[in-house]
Structure formats: C-alpha cells, structure tokens
Specification:
single chain; alpha/beta; Rossmann fold; N-(1-d-carboxylethyl)-l-norvaline Dehydrogenase, domain 2; eight-stranded mixed β-sheet; 19 strands; 50% helix; 11% strand; binds 1,4-dihydronicotinamide adenine dinucleotide
C-alpha cells in the first residue's frame, strides 16, 4: 500500500498510519480509498487481527478530506460520453466509492478506533465517524469539522448520515450548514469524539479501548438504536426540520444547491436503514457535484484563494522583502486601520498625521481594536501591549526615514496627495533604505499614474488599495501605474501577504476593479427607485441574488454623503462624458437634509438607537419617486435580480476587455472578498462562464434595448461567444501554467 503503513502489534492490533507520499497533508484520493479497502478486507478476513487503529503520519494533521484536485479534475464524475441513466449510474458509483469503503471498514467485524492526531476535516472526520471509537489529541491546532458547505458541497462520505445519528439532527444540521469546526474540548462535549488525550497519547488510548472494550458494532447498527432528539417522524424531530428548512431558506434564498441537498439527504436518509441512507446521501452528493455552483465554488474558494494567498501574481526573480518598518501617512479611518493590521503582523509602524492630536487619534483607534480583541479572549494583554508599542504616532515626517514602505492614506485630494508624497519621499529615499523602499497610495479613485507624477521615483510608486473596515476586509487591490516596476509590484505583494490579506493585481483605471464593478450595483438600485419600484422590493431582490445586502441598504452602509462626494468628483473629472445616474440628485437632497446613512441613523432606512431593533424603511423615499411597482410576480423578481447581477458582471467583462484585470481567479476572488459578490456563483466571471457567454450576450442585447447602454455587451464577449470560449479557457493562468 502506498498511502498507509501498517504494523501488527503483539496484541493483534493493526496500526494503520495514513501518510500520502509527497504531500504535506493527507487527502483521500481514489488510490488512498483503495488502500483503506485493503485494510478493511484484511481486518475482516485475517484472524490474527483483533482490531484496527487509524492514525496519521503527518505533522500537519490527520486528514483534510477528499482530494479536491482529483475531484475537480473529474475523478468523481466519470460518466464522460455516456448518456442518460448509464451516465448517472457511473457518476453515482464514483461518488459512492467513499461511502462504500468507509462502510466496509465500519462493518468489518473488528473494532476500529481512530487516533485523531491533528486536524480532521471533511472526509477526514467522516472516516473517523465510520470508526467505532474516536480519540482526539488535545493539540492547539487539532480540530474536527465538516466544512464542505463552504466550497459548495455537503458531506458525502457518510457525514450527513452519521453525524445526526450521533449528536442529533439540530446540532448536526447547524454544524454542517455552517461548516463549523470543533476544538478537542468542544468535540468531546458535543459527543463527536469519545475521548480527548494529551498530544502524542492518541494511539495508546485507541489501543487501550480496543483491548478493554472494543465494540465492533456502530450505534446505528444496533437493534435498539434511536436518533438522539428524534428523527423526522418523531414530533420533536419533525419540528426541527420545519424550522431548519425555513432558516436555511432565509439564509440562502435557495441559491446554494448544496444547502438544499444537505437538507434532503438528512431528512430522507434518517427515515431508512443505514445502508440505504448512504445511497441517498451519495445521490444528492452526486447531484450537487454536477452543479456549476459547486465547481465554481471549489475552484474559487479552494484553489484560487490558495494560489492568490501564495502570491500568484508576483513577478518571479525578485527576492522576498522583509518589512522592518512601515510608515502610514494619514491617521484617519483607513490609515489607523492600516497601522493596526501592519503592527499585528509584527512590523514597526510610524503613523504620521498633520498634528500630534490627529496622529494620536489614529493610534487610539488601534488601541480600541486591541482592547476588543483582549476582551473577546482572542489575545493576551501582553500581546496587545506589544502590538501597540510597535506604533509610533507623530506629526514629524523625519520619522519616516528608515522605512521599507510608505502607505499614504490622507484625504482624497490630488494636490494634498502630491504635497505629502514629496514631503514623505525626502526622508524615505534617504539613508539605509534609500535603494529599496517603495511608496504605496491608498487612493480609491485617483489614477495612480497621475499621482505618480509627484513622485521622484515613479517606478517605486504603486497603488495599495484597502477596503473598509481594514481590520476585517481581506482583499487588497494592488494597482500598477504606467511606470511601476516589477520589483515594486513584488514588494507590494510581499507586504500584503505579510499582513495576511489577499492581493489582486490590477491596471490603472477609474475606480480600478472592485469599486468599478460594485458601483453599478448601487446605481442600478437607484435607477429602479427612480422607475417607481418600491425600495423594499429593490433590496429584497438584491438580497435574493446572494449579495450580502440590497443596493439601497448597502448605500446606507457606505454613507450617502461619501457616495454623493464620489459622484460629484467623478462628474467633475469626467466632464462632458459623465452620465448622471437617475436618483443622484435625490440622494444629494437626502444628504443636505441630514440623512447620511447608517452612520447617523438616517438614510434610506431609519435605524433605531437600539441595535437589536430592526431598521425600517424611511417613508420619505416615496415622495421623491412615487411607487408604481409595490409588488412583483416571480418573473418580475427574476428580472430585477438579473439586472442587479448582470450590470456588475458586464462591467467585469469590460475590465477584461480593457486589460484592467487579467486573471479570472483574481476577478472571482476579488469580487467575493472585496464586495461580497454572490458567493454561490464562485465569483463574478464564474457567473458569466456558468451562464455561458452566448446566452449572456443574448441577454445583454435584450437588456440593452430595455434599459440602456450600461448593459451593452463588449466586443470581447461577442468574440468569445463566436470562438466558444469561457473566461477560464481564454484568460485562465493556472491552467496554462499547468499545461506548460
Ligand atoms: P479620513 O478623513 O478618515 O482620514 C484622512 C486623514 O488624513 C486625516 O486623519 C487627516 O488629518 C490626515 N491628513 C490630512 N492632511 C494630512 C497631511 N498633510 N499629512 C498627514 N496627514 C494628513 O479619510 P479616510 O476615509 O481614511 O481615507 C483616506 C484615503 O483612503 C483616501 O484617499 C480615500 O479615498 C482612501 N480610501 C477610503 C476608503 C473608505 O472607505 N473610507 C476605502 C479605500 C480607500
């Protein structure tokens, strides 16, 4: 066997150590499953084997589940050219393989215990659930969980059947629908594992159980078995399904096939004997895996995030930069956040503002964030003090000397930015770091090449665009100016990775990538409002698309005064080319009347002082645009949803056409991390690929006629449609790299 090492001890216990060669973490490939089948058969047939213990030979953990690379590569969908039932049968058999093998182990007739000596997620926990006894090491990083839902799947290796039979329907559904992980003590109190022992003692404890108690029959294979808390036919159990269904619908709006299939699998599977139950699970799993949503989510949430997290856009051949000191210019909302995340990464920060009081205010914001972390038990007081001590707040630009990087976050004003750039570059490009330091601006709208004109070293000048609130938002857009060098780009990426954010690299353009695609979503909401669509309907349709909030409530969150300012600045900068958005005057009026959005409790909604009381729609919107459409039938709702999603997607396509963004992985990950674009789709270009370019173009043509130029299909899409391309086939860098 390649993937397991076996060792039979004097007591007849077969220790099977999972250790996939050449991989840092164990996953279940089809080959590894084959080895597990060999183990199950040996246990069944060899009399000298009295029991089996599974454990891992990796220091990184026990097992991360099914091998996603193999899964996405098609090993789980083998139907290929087959048609109809034959295809379904082939795919079912492929998906059932995990269940079949785990069940063989469970019913081998010998007691099987697992020594969980590190993380056991997905299929890693599922194989453990198929063992008769589970011992978990009390390691700081050890955890168990079924996170499949986060990548558009649900547990398909018996997890959706064994977990509810073990810990009850309610707890199991919560754990699986949120993809929650459990640390050793939680796992024990939930009843997911039987015993928690000190790290390194797992195998010993598992063997002791086999020698002393070793029961080879799973609870659900015993005659008197009852589902804890009741199954679907039990009055209490039935209640859970009624409530659970409603809750999951409310959270997911039916956008996630995996969530619906999880409910189906649990509800139907719990009504039948176990061997039939796992077949039901595999049927729903197979169906889920075949959806474009699952494929796109696996690609984006697993592979692309991993690639970007390793700096896939980083130019090769530039040595990695270590950051000893970073200067942040402007200690306002963004600057203070940037100082915080930088110090959290262990880097010294010089936080500069125009006077001491303003600089101190920024540092005080960092202190507040640290206090919160301590009060929530996420950090010790000592660590918090250590982070705070790394930040020096000062109005003295001379303190910038010796920094590896300056991040500029002063007011959004070109003249001011020019002035502070010159003022900061003098000490930056002096002394020991003169040859290697770089300068990043956090501007959200001003072209980088324009700002770079004020720089004495435009090749060292780059956009490093954070999102608000900086401590929470994971995306950073890196924007190249005309003269930005590869070396500067590599350094900017090194910095972003060091502060544990995900970088995407984009070319200079108004609003760059994220805001350029997001703004049309809110603009479309305003246009609908001006057309007489009821605000409640607009925001409901927005949420139903899978966006975190509707367009009007999103505007309240961003702040109406900020949006009005951006609109007027854009109009000024674009001159005659600017096309006003219907409703922008009305929003400006709301701002003039003191309705600034959530921040002052008044915007499109009224926000009660008590945060637990829900917000209500402000009735004044109806005086500005009388409601002509208060209700919508399902087809009309679909049309509203389509407008809100497609207007963003067509903008992303234009960004590809103009070369603003070049990697579909960056567009997808950027859209989800940057502005919460419908995660079920796998991201903004995965959405277009799943619709199919010809169909998308056809819809855009119809929508352009119905609603206007903003839906006009770019030439690029027509060309791609004619050639039968997708974004991933035409622009996909990962696949090309592999092919090469
Ligand atoms: P802010 O108004 O909260 O902070 C700006 C800070 O710059 C103030 O503390 C001000 O005292 C300081 N400042 C002004 N003149 C200065 C000088 N000569 N030297 C040093 N400091 C000076 O603004 P905010 O929201 O933090 O924005 C800063 C930058 O970040 C802008 O370029 C903005 O476009 C950009 N940005 C803002 C986002 C947001 O959501 N607010 C998101 C992404 C980027």
């Amino acid at each position: 066997m390649e993937n397991f090492k076996t060792e039979l001890d004097a007591d007849g216990i077969l220790l099977c150590t999972f250790d996939v060669p050449g991989k840092t973490m164990n996953t279940f490939t089809k080959a590894a499953l084959g080895d597990l089948e060999t183990i199950a058969n040996r246990a069944k047939t060899e009399a000298e084997i009295k029991g089996v213990v599974l454990t891992s030979g990796k220091t990184t953990g026990f097992c991360a589940g099914a091998d996603l690379e193999e899964m996405l590569g098609g090993a789980w969908e083998v139907g290929g050219d087959l048609q109809g039932e034959a295809k379904l049968k082939a795919n079912f058999d492929a998906a059932f393989e995990m269940n079949r093998v785990y069940r063989l182990l469970e019913t081998c007739g010998k007691p099987v215990a697992v020594a969980i000596n590190g993380v056991a997620l997905g299929g890693g926990l599922e194989v453990s659930l198929a063992c008769h006894y589970r011992v978990m090491g009390n390691g700081p990083k050890t955890q168990v969980g079924l996170p499949e839902i986060k990548i558009g799947l649900f547990p398909g290796g018996g997890g959706s059947q064994r977990l509810p039979r073990l810990i009850g329907v309610q707890n199991a559904l919560l754990a699986m629908s949120e993809g929650k992980s459990f640390k050793p003590k939680e796992a024990l109190s939930q009843g997911i594992v039987h015993e928690v022992v000190d790290e390194g003692k797992e195998v010993e404890a598992a063997k002791t159980w086999i020698k002393t108690k070793g029961d080879p029959v799973a609870p659900w294979d015993k005659k008197d078995f009852k589902i804890p808390g009741g199954g679907p036919y039990h009055p209490a159990g039935a209640q859970i399904f009624i409530m659970g269904n409603a809750m999951l619908r409310k959270q997911s709006y039916g956008n996630y096939p995996a969530v619906l299939n999880l409910m189906h699998s649990v509800y139907e599977g719990l009504q039948v004997p176990f061997d039939t139950a796992i077949k039901i699970e595999s049927r729903f799993f197979c169906n889920t895996l075949a959806t474009p949503q699952a494929k796109a989510m696996i690609r984006t949430f697993f592979f692309s995030m991993q690639a970007l997290g390793k700096g896939s856009g980083r130019p090769a051949g530039v040595a990695k930069t270590e950051f000893a000191q970073v200067a942040v210019l402007g200690a306002g909302m963004m600057g203070a956040g940037i100082a915080y995340v930088t110090a959290m990464a262990g880097i010294k920060v010089v936080l500069v503002d125009r006077d001491q009081a303003s600089a101190d205010k920024g540092k005080a914001h960092c202190e507040d964030l640290l206090k919160k972390a301590v009060s929530r038990g996420k950090m010790t007081q000592d660590k918090a003090q250590g982070v705070l001590d790394l930040i020096t707040a000062t109005p003295d630009y001379a303190a910038i000397e010796g920094s590896d990087l300056v991040v500029e976050a002063v007011f959004e004003n070109t003249e001011l930015k020019d002035q502070v750039t010159r003022q900061a570059e003098a000490p930056l490009y002096k002394g020991a770091k003169a040859g290697s330091a770089i300068f990043g601006t956090n501007t959200s709208t001003i072209p980088i090449s324009l700002l770079a004109k004020a720089s004495s070293k435009p090749e060292n000048y780059i956009g490093i665009h954070f999102f608000s609130p900086v401590d929470k938002m994971l995306l950073v857009e890196i924007i190249l100016g005309e003269k930005t060098s590869d070396e500067t780009l590599a350094k900017a990426i090194d910095y972003v990775l060091k502060i544990k954010k995900t970088p995407i690299v984009v070319n200079d353009s108004r609003f760059f990538f994220a805001n350029r695609c997001f703004i049309p979503f809110t603009a479309e909401g305003m246009i609908m409002w001006s057309e007489g669509v009821a605000p409640a309907l607009i925001d409901n349709a927005g949420r139903m698309t899978g966006m975190p909030r509707g367009p009007l409530e999103m505007m309240d969150d961003v702040a109406l005064d900020l949006l009005t300012k951006i609109t007027s600045e854009t109009a000024k900068a674009m001159g005659d080319a600017y096309q006003p958005i219907p409703g922008e005057k009305e929003v400006a009026q709301m701002v003039a009347d003191g309705r600034l959005g959530r921040k002052n409790g008044k915007g499109f909604y009224d926000y009660p002082a008590d945060r637990n009381t829900p917000k209500t729609l402000w009735q004044g919107t109806k005086d500005m645009f009388p409601v002509t459409q208060a209700e919508a039938n399902p087809a009309e709702v679909e049309e509203l949803k389509k407008r809100l999603l497609y207007v963003q997607a067509v903008t992303a396509a234009r960004c590809f056409e103009e070369g603003v963004i070049t990697d579909p992985r960056e567009a997808d990950v950027g859209s989800i991390l940057g502005w919460g674009f419908a995660p079920w789709s796998g991201g903004i270009v995965s959405l277009i690929d799943a619709i199919g370019i010809p169909k998308f173009v056809e819809e855009l043509d119809r929508m352009e006629k119905a609603y206007g130029e903003r839906f006009k299909a770019p030439q690029l899409l027509r060309e791609m449609a004619a050639k039968g391309e997708t974004f991933y086939s035409r622009f996909g860098k990962a696949d090309k790299a592999k092919a090469a």
